[in-house]
Each structure stands twice: as C-alpha cells, then as structure tokens.
Amino acid sequence: MGLDVYVGSLTRYYSGDWETVLQKHARETGTPLRVVRQDEGDDVITDPEVIRAAVLQWRENLSAGLGDNLSEPLDWDESPGSRYFTDKPAWDCYGSLILWAAYLDHPDLVRPEACVENWSEDEAFKRSSADGFQTEFPTLLRNTEIWLPVSFRFTFAGPDVGGNVVNFGSAVTLRDELTNLNTRTWGADKERLASWRQEGATRSAPLEVGARFAFSIFYELANAAVENRLVMKLDY
C-alpha cells in the first residue's frame, strides 16, 4: 500500500476526479495501472453533486462542533473547477521526515543515519508522540491525516466525510512547522528544495536523504493548500 499526498477539494477527492503521479505517468505512457484504495467497493458513491452536498454538510457540522476553538468557521474551495496538487513521498521517506522532526525535539538522542523501517517504534518518535509532551511539530508528529486550510494551533480526532475517525490539523500550522524544521536544520532555499524533489530517493535511502525528499513534497503541497485554500490529505 503506497502513500500519496493530495491537495484539493474533498468533492474531487471522493469522486475520484484526480490522478496520482503514478496514474498520470501511466496514462501518458500507455502503461496499464489499476489503483485499489482501502475504501473502494461496488457501493461507493461517485456522483460529484451528491458528494459535494455531503462534504458541505460535514464541514458545517465539524465547524459547529469545534465552535469557539476556531477563530473563524471552516471554509475552503469545494467548487467543481477547483485545482488539485499531488505527489508521492512513499512511506519510508515520510517516516524519515517524521523522525527528522522528532529528533529535533530530543537532542539528547543520536539520530540514526540509515532508514528506520519501523519508525513508529523509534524512541524519539515515541517520546514526541506521548501524551503530555509538547512537541514543536504537533501536526507533523501526531498521526495527522487531514490538514484543513484554516489557521489553528491544535490537532484533534474526528470523523472524516466517510465517517472514519482520523486526526486533523491545520495546513497553515503544518507549513509553519516545516518552515521551522528547515530553518533549524538545512536552511534550504527554493532551488535546493526543487533539486531534492527532482532527485527523489531510492527505497530505504539514508534517513536524511529520505527526509529531504519528503520534506520537499510536504512543504510545497502545504504551501499549495494554504495559498489556494484547499484541503491537504494523506492517500493510501
């Protein structure tokens, strides 16, 4: 099961009106490819109008539920012609980025040089994600799956449009966290980030190589979410 990151309207996402980078490549090269998602079934609704109505009602309910915890009601572009952005960091590179951030929380620990396959069992991650610990990177390290394009400083668990309970954060806060991470470590400019994204990373690449590749994707997509007022979501 691969990992992609999607930025766009939830109407477009749930109606399947978008392509992963692999799907786009397969279409352009004529390569056969079938993507199977975990919630796929014969009874899945794909009508954009039905989905859009459900998304808008879900958003209204979520906004009302959060109430005074928000400085403004939840709102973003769910129009039929909204843009979308996507890329594929892969799980191992995503895990390397998670650990790169977690080790900044814990300078007493020695960051590994090699890729950590089971990163959720790493000591730095377990410390940073423990209840009560004040990490500098909460929206990155607290198992967030959906980032909303509204500014707030907390994460929370709640139902997504399909009723599955997932963790939510703010795309604005995620962008701030990624900026902080970059400032404290690499200090990479736009050209350097573009080169990391272009170079990519092989499977189980050294931890820093994987972290840089995933960072270049997450930073660009977080910016796209904020600037275009769109939702950012993990897809797997």
Q: How many helix segments? A: 9
Low-confidence parts, pLDDT < 50 over ≥5 residues? Answer: none
Please report the total strand number as a whole number.
6
Total of domains: 1
Strand sequence of the main sheet, in spatial order?
A: 2-1-6-3-5-4
Shape: globular
The averaged pLDDT comes out at 93
What structural class results from the helix and strand content?
Answer: alpha+beta
Work out the helicity level: 40-55%
**What is the radius of gyration?**
18 Å
From the N-terminal CA to the C-terminal CA, the straight-line distance is 6 Å
User: Could you spell the SSE succession in H and E letters?
Assistant: EHHHEHHHEEEHHHE
Largest sheet: 6 strands, mixed
Strand content: 5-15%
Please tell me about this protein's structure:
This protein is an alpha+beta fold and 236 residues long. It has one domain (4-235). 44% of the residues lie in helices and 12% in strands. Strands 2-1-6-3-5-4 form a six-stranded mixed β-sheet. Strand 4 (156-159) and strand 5 form a beta hairpin.
